[in-house]
Amino acid sequence: xxxxxxxxxxxxxxxxxxxxxxxxxxxxxxxxxxxxxxxxxxxxxxxxxxxxxxxxxxxxxxxxxxxxxxxxxxxxxxxxxxxxxxxxxxxxxxxxxxxxxxxxxxxxxxxxxxxxxxxxxxxxxxxxxxxxxxxxxxxxxxxxxxxxxxxxxxxxxxxxxxxxxxxxxxxxxxxxxxxxxxxxxxxxxxxxxxxxxxxxxxxxxxxxxxxxxxxxxxxxxxxxxxxxxxxxxxxxxxxxxxxxxxxxxxxxxxx
Length: 255
Ligand code: FPP
Prior knowledge:
This protein is α/β, with parallel strands linked by helices and 255 residues long. It is 40% helix and 13% strand.
């Protein structure tokens, strides 16, 4: 039996409800480190991939909630450049997840006006994963609702090195001088050049670190951590994180 042949939960997430009192000061860009899938499965005596499978179902719920709340961008950390070190069956399953997710959920994403984008080195993913992602991007390219930005084969340090190399080349070509390099120069070379920085960054599962995720972009993000494992992080807690964000005073280093 191939381990990744877990059945897909095909039910529509029609039951996602959001609170109506949350409309003021919604973070425009929310980034999430969806951690704890493995532990969720282990606690139930299941293989780790069962946790990823359940985690994918939760992606459906949180995407729906974010869209209803009129969040503009939701960036989800689906696979890091370091995740290739995991056992091959787990990597294989994680590469299969976007295919299953998009095969089953794309019509709903299209219907709900969600636009799919990715950040990361997509060209190094297996061909069928790339194909599914490209198809989703093409089919949702004109959508104007939530941007579902999937960080896949993404690593922030790699992203910065890649950008610095591009900047060096442009300096060598004489497009601008070293003295003209500003924060904006680097920002414009990152995968996220078309997006505003995250306002709120959430990490589930009790780990208190950024794990090479959006290190530059999260310079002034509000951080929110929870012990809850990703598959159990449902709409209510997502809203709790947003409520907490709404109480914060963002000073960006000022007073
Ligand atoms: C970290 O949990 C989670 C991941 C490496 C994968 C996250 C992927 C999904 C939730 C599904 C992606 C969905 C789409 C749409 C592509 P972990 O395995 O590190 O958990 P652990 O710390 O408990 O072991």
